[in-house]
Amino acid sequence: MDKVLEMRAITKQFPRVLANDRVDFDLNYGEIHALVGENGSGKSTLMNILYGLYQSDSGEIFVRGKKVDIHEPRVAIDLRIGMVFQHFMLVEPLTVAENIVLGSELRKGPFLDTKRAIQEVEDLSNRYGLRIDPRARIDDLSVGLQQRVEILKALYRGAEILILDEPTAVLTPQEVEDLFKVLLSLKEQGTSIVFITHKIKEVLAVSDRVSVLRRGRKIGTKATAETNEQDLAEMMVGRVVLLNVEKEPAKPGAEVLRIENLTVKDQFGQEKVRGVDLSVRSGEVLGIAGVEGNGQSELVEAIAGLQKAAGGKIFLGEQEITNWSPLRIREAGFGMVPEDRHRRGLVLDYSVADNLILGLHGKKPFVHYGMWRDDKAVYANAEEIIEQYDIRPPVATQPARSLSGGNQQKIVVGREFTQNPRLLICAQPTRGVDVGAIEFIHQQVIAQRDQGAAVLLVSAELDEIFSLSDRIAVMYNGQIVSVMPAAEVTEHKLGFLMLGGRLEDYEAHEVSGNAKQD
Amino acid sequence: MQNRIRAVRWQEMVTPLAAVILALAIGAGFILFVGENPLTAYKILFVESFGNLRNLATTLQRATPLMFTGLAVAFGYRAGLFNIGAEGQLYIGAFAAAWVGFTLTGAPRFIHLPLAIIAGMLGGALWGSIPGYLKAKLGVHEVINTIMLNFIALYLTDWLATGPFHGGSWVPETARIKPAAALTRLYPPTRLTTGVFLALLAAFVVYLVLWKTRQGYELRAVGLNPDAAEYGGINVARNTVLAMAISGALAGLAGTEQILGLHNRFIVRFSSDLGFMGIAVALLGKNHPFGVILAAVLFGALQTGSAAMDRLTSVPRELITIIQALIIFFVAAEYLIRRILRMKEGA
Description:
- The complex is a heterodimer.
- By secondary structure, chain A is of the alpha/beta class.
- Chain A is built from 18 helices and 24 strands.
- In chain A, the strands form six sheets. Chain A has a six-stranded mixed beta sheet with strand order 6-9-10-3-11-12, with helices on both faces.
- Chain B is an all-alpha fold.
- Chain B is built from 14 helices and two strands; from the N terminus they run ααααααβααααβαααα.
- The longest helix of chain B has 32 residues.
- Chain B has a domain of 239 residues.
- Classes of the chains: A alpha/beta, B mainly alpha.
- Chains A and B meet through α10, α11 and β20 of A and α8 and α9 of B.
């Protein structure tokens, strides 16, 4: 088959890490080639070399059969290579059209020819089936649509080879599906696509071929049709991975968390949680499924004391803890893996050891006389958790910032779980985390449950909800739509409820045998 | 593991050192321009600031208030606060110390002097905690409030020293403090006093508080990531007020040292921007107490040596101001310096 792109024996040495070690990679005309690997396996480095952001130490690149030297992005763009980054590079107050033509503006005298810009963007979006309003301002658009603008930007510059760096990391499941449709239609129009991800399901859903990197080396390239989830996971991690957690049936005990008619308002006075009742018992995992932004974050923060409850009551065991300070709630036997580890869970510039005592920093044995810090105890604690949770690199003095996402998450998980809290909230516990670490974290969640913790799991990943939960609740528009035993829930039913469907309607459709999918 | 820590510490020092060297190099260009030999001029600068015990004492005496104000700014910075108000806190602290110094009579030194010092700290702490409180409760940015409070402090002390507490002479100053409230001179005729020990002690205490106590852990966590701090059960508002109060107390000590050690009375507008210089000192010292000490000594030395350089060569003393400004410029342009260094490494 004809290759639009070929990279041969690309090697890139960073201080201390060999990011790419003689990596070969090629891309056929009009294919979607998934590039997968755990965080830090070198996939982004490889593509940044292709886009001219890094220079390789050795190796050759051929585009359309010709050897090229891509020493800056300008060259890549001239070669019709476009890249969409994980973090968008858009000017928020400007419109879609203005952003797309930025850098190659059409002029009418000294002025921007807005009309033609809009026209061209409209033509482009019609041609590729990427629907968007060229007049909309970027900051009014959802993340998914902003990403679409990024893709259009690359296409406007004539990209025939499109690199997407972890495009789904920021998207909701619905947006992911939309993105896949877009990618498939681009492919039909002849665009060749490199799709970087670490989510195996996505690879299987959309790609033609897949290449796996591990620790800077290419492990192999396969036709997607000839591989499967288990196979890819093993290639990525380098050992057999359990994709489903093995667990005994739950043995629920006494009620640990009870929420009565809770309402939470955001800073603008909007009700984000609207009259939620919920109960979680010792020894069970209650999973809250839902598209993000339906009040899950606010619910969790209110339980933790990080946002004020505007109404209703929260009980931890027998005690009412509504609007207590976060410290008091913690001390009553509460632990939480927050949804955003960078914002809430970690002080990134603190060492691993210091992060491992966040929230316990005022307690024995870490301080004496309520005041003097005991460095020995802090480091002993760190060594213990680092070993138990396999945090890598195992260096307690290293700033948390320098660790991979999965290992950062293990810091948070290790810290919270070793407290053995009565109530444990896990909000998006495996977001942006490697396959190997996901397996580990899931096992730990179940271990906590089996030790008698009441676990409240909030996740946008349906797989995660299914594999961990004993009961599943669906949250939509600030309310709990329904709570069901996990065994009675299908993915289809959950999807229906997450999008605002009512249980009665679903059952009615099921009976008549034509459940409607939105 | 230990090596890694050391490597990090060294890296921290690269930018300040490079900044100083670059600034001196550019300064050499100016010296050539006025027709002097830079090496000669710099030799004079060095000898006159460190060459003998007496010059060293003068250098330290000039450095002492900068140590305090540098520590004040650095402490605030560690808690995520940009304290531009060291100047105002310094004036309030200075006046409080002076007031105790001239009001109290008949007390022995071991009571009078500590009382005056404590008053100076409290004055600064009070002045610092006002913007701290406004930030914690109302979310008003501390930069705005500290700047405004600088003016208020300045005019307030102007009025106090020329109005109700005017010393009676034709000069705008208060009465002299009692000898029992004065800091002891260490090496007459230089004006170096025991205040320098107080500054070193303060640096050590700041180090202990920030890195060896629970409170320091909380303060730095608030400075680095207030959201995570809150999640970790840390009271962000309380720590904000506390950080500003401690920062203010340190600035207040700068004023205290000037009054009890140098002027022995409160003189209207005596400070000549010691508080603002503290920002530069903290910046150059990488907001670390020991770095602040070194940076303050450097600035003290530049000031001490500049007079001699002016006297003995045709290089004007203003050159030193230029060099100081360049140092600050280069430290602030850390990114630029790192790039230059990297280019040299050829990586």
